[in-house]
């Protein structure tokens, strides 16, 4: 932009030649400020100022109107509502002169000016316009048209540009010569409007040999003696200028496309820290809507940098500008900036000096949003020290703390508790790993509730937990252990109440390591597990059976009666006492696998639908798995597994046949059928006869014939006793 006293920007333009070769009084005025940025010799002579003096002045210093009136008149000229004015101007010697002013807006290097021709009122002879070099000797192609756009006169530059002589054009419509074939009017505007204002636009025009040239066309009313006679049209060849602009624009567009395609936010700064360019990623990252919101702004004020420790609400002067001016490159791995909406985001940034001809002319800063990366890093750090299922600390963290506490002489007394969850294998095998996870989560919750505020609680294995209790005595630790055991007794997991074997050890001085103390606590836990194993197993079995009875109360009577009848049949078959007792126990637990069924399925009994039937048949396998886990029932597991096999080989789960089926299973099959039918036919008369008849019919098919025969003997003996 032009400034007072500095007209170097104007030196190489065609307007400069126009000014210096003109005999009229000419001024070039900065529209935004009113400053006189250029004046020709005639202007200096007319006003009585030296060139340097007048270019240090404003039009407000010359025009006698008020500042507001001058601004209004300049606006009228600039918006092309009027170009012709009568003013009183003040000369250097104080003399006032009446002048006629013709002011037309022009644009030079993307800045707005008023090209102003000043004619003293006593100079009336407008033919001087043609006589002077302003028209004929102007470097710009000029033509004067009448009101019908017919050529009145053209200058030498016009002849050179378009190839027509003045004589062959005079009196003809201008469009006939210069308008391209694809256009149907000289200028796309009403001619009556053109006689009242000036226009300037860039168009293509053709020469005599058909070549198209890119020109700027400036059209102004042609005025003589205050009367409008036609138009003055000035053509300026802008082909090279437009080509240069096109190439520059293409280059800028390519660079901007590259910038906008970058994932990183990129901004450019001048040496004062003012933003000079940015890409779309920067606009989005900082929460703005358009690049114009960022350009020209001091970036330290805009982004409110914090210190590198991410402390909130801290602004700082960016001393790194000085370092960059010295040619240094800066990389900050963790910083924070504030978006437009006030939200803080974590960033990593690189700042590089921009050089031109060896001089640092600016700075390029690349920002990367590391919010998600920091979350991931924190998550990884969390995972490295925590158990994801219980959210307690893991074994690595626990062992690290043991090492740290070994160096701490203020930790005494210190206790370690070691625990092992009972029934995890049973839960996983029978109810699935989801149920097993629920058991572990429950254990973790209890351990955290009891010990969490006193020390470090960790899951150190699949079903193992450890607690580090600094400054906790042996007696205090024992109370906490009992509290944890009691809490487990109140928690029911799927089909049974949970339990945990716990052991602890206490160290009162520095004689010994915590690793050894950990081993002692673990040993004590195993002692606790062995001592209570029988009770724990019995309790688990009882809880499972109780769950089945809660779903269907009739199952309790069925279990007891089947066990009693199976024992009688086994005794009648003269089996040894151990085998009889095994069959009695198998009769009691033969339907324990039904614990996997919900209450509705338990009430229905044998369901309909192949999918449901297949699931129902699984209860024999599930029962086998449960009973195999306990010492006291391990020997009866096979009898339970096969109690739905058939003598003819069509049973389940393995289609065993005849004596392939364990004797205990064959006995339970008959005893269970009798008790089930007793329940079904309880209200019918002669129900016992019907039951015996149906079992007899299945002898040799579903049931072992010998077992059926013994069963009938047992039933006859019972009838005789009742008898």
SSE arrangement:
Layout lengths: L13 H7 L4 E6 L5 E4 L1 H7 L3 H4 L12 H12 L5 E7 L5 E13 L2 E10 L7 H4 L1 H4 L4 E6 L4 E4 L1 H7 L3 H4 L5 H4 L12 H4 L4 E8 L5 E13 L2 E11 L1 H23 L3 E5 L5 E4 L1 H6 L13 H5 L16 H6 L4 E9 L5 E13 L2 E11 L1 H15 L7 E2 H12 L7 E8 L2 H8 L1 H19 L4 E4 L4 E7 L3 H16 L2 E2 L2 E2 L2 E8 L6 H38 L2 H19 L4 H13 L9 H6 L5 H8 L1 H10 L8 H5 L21 H18 L6 H11 L7 H18 L1
Parallel strand pairs: 16-18
Antiparallel strand pairs: 1-2, 1-5, 3-4, 4-5, 6-7, 6-10, 8-9, 9-10, 11-12, 11-15, 13-14, 14-15, 17-19, 17-22, 18-19, 20-21
Helix pairs in contact: 17-18, 18-19, 21-22, 21-27, 22-27, 27-28
Summary of the model, kept short:
It is built from 29 helices and 22 strands. The chain is α+β, with helices and mostly antiparallel strands and 723 residues long.
Q: Mind explaining what this structure looks like?
A:
- Helix 21 crosses helix 27 and helix 27 packs antiparallel against helix 28.
- The chain has 29 helices and 22 strands.
- The strands form five sheets. A five-stranded antiparallel β-sheet has the order 2-1-5-4-3. Strands 7-6-10-9-8 form a five-stranded antiparallel β-sheet.
- The longest helix is centred in the last third of the chain and has 38 residues.
- The protein is of the alpha+beta class.
- The N and C termini lie far apart (128 Å).
């Amino acid at each position: 932009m032009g400034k007072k006293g500095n007209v170097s920007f104007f030196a190489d333009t065609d307007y400069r030649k126009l000014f210096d070769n003109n005999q009229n009084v000419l001024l070039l005025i900065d529209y935004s400020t009113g400053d006189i940025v250029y004046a020709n010799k005639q202007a200096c002579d007319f006003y009585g100022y030296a060139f340097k003096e007048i270019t240090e002045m404003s039009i407000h210093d010359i025009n006698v109107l008020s500042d507001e009136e001058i601004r209004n008149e300049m606006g009228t000229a600039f918006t092309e509502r009027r170009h012709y004015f009568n003013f009183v101007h003040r000369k250097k010697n104080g003399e006032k002169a009446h002048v006629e002013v013709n002011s037309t807006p022009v644009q030079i290097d993307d800045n707005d000016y008023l090209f102003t021709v000043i004619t003293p009122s006593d100079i009336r002879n407008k033919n001087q316009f043609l006589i002077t070099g302003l028209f004929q000797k102007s470097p710009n192609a000029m033509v004067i048209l009448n009101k019908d756009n017919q050529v009145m006169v053209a200058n030498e530059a016009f002849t050179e540009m378009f190839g027509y002589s003045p004589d062959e054009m005079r009196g003809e419509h201008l469009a006939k010569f210069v308008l391209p074939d694809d256009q149907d009017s000289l200028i796309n505007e009403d001619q009556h409007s053109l006689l009242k204002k000036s226009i300037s636009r860039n168009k293509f025009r053709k020469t005599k040999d058909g070549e198209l040239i890119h020109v700027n066309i400036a059209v102004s009313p042609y005025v003589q003696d205050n009367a409008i006679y036609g138009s003055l049209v000035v053509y300026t060849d802008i082909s090279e200028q437009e080509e240069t602009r096109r190439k520059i624009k293409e280059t800028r567009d390519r660079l901007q496309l590259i910038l906008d395609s970058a994932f990183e936010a990129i901004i450019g700064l001048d040496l004062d820290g003012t933003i000079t360019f940015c890409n779309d990623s920067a606009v989005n990252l900082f929460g703005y809507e358009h690049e114009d919101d960022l350009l020209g702004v001091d970036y330290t004020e805009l982004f409110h940098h914090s210190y590198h420790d991410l402390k909130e609400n801290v602004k700082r002067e960016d001393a790194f500008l000085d370092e960059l001016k010295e040619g240094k490159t800066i990389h900050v791995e963790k910083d924070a900036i504030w978006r437009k909406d006030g939200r803080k985001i974590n960033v990593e940034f690189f700042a590089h000096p921009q050089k031109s001809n060896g001089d640092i002319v600016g700075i390029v800063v690349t920002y990367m949003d590391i919010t998600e990366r920091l979350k991931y890093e924190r998550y990884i750090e969390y995972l490295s020290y925590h158990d994801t299922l219980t959210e307690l600390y893991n074994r690595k963290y626990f062992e690290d703390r043991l090492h740290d506490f070994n160096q701490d002489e203020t930790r005494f007394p210190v206790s370690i508790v070691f625990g092992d969850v009972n029934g995890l294998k049973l839960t996983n095998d029978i109810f699935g790993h989801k149920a097993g996870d629920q058991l572990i989560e429950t254990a973790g919750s209890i351990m955290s509730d009891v010990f969490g505020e006193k020390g470090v609680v960790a899951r150190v294995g699949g079903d193992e937990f450890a607690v580090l209790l600094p400054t906790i005595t042996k007696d205090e630790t024992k109370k906490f252990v009992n509290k944890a055991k009691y809490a487990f007794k109140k928690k029911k997991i799927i089909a049974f109440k949970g339990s945990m074997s716990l052991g602890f050890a206490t160290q009162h001085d520095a004689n010994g390591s915590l690793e050894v103390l950990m081993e002692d606590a673990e040993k004590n836990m195993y002692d606790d597990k062995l001592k209570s194993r029988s009770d724990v197993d019995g309790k688990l079995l009882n809880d499972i059976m109780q769950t089945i009875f809660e779903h269907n109360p009739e199952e309790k009577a069925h279990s007891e009666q089947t066990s009693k009848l199976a024992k009688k049949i086994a005794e009648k078959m003269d089996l040894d006492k151990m085998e009889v007792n095994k069959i009695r126990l198998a009769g009691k637990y033969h339907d324990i696998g039904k614990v996997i069924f919900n209450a509705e399925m338990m009430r229905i009994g044998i369901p309909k639908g192949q999918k449901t039937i297949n699931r129902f048949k699984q209860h024999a396998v599930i029962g086998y798995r449960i009973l195999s886990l306990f010492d006291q029932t391990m020997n009866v597991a096979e009898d339970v597994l096969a109690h739905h096999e058939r003598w003819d080989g069509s049973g389940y789960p393995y289609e065993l046949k005849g004596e392939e089926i364990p004797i205990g299973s064959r006995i339970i099959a008959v005893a269970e059928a009798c008790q089930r039918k007793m329940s079904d036919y309880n209200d019918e008369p002669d129900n016992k006869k019907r039951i015996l008849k149906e079992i007899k019919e299945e002898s040799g098919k579903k049931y072992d014939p010998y077992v059926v025969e013994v069963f009938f003997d047992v039933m006859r003996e019972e009838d005789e006793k009742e008898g």
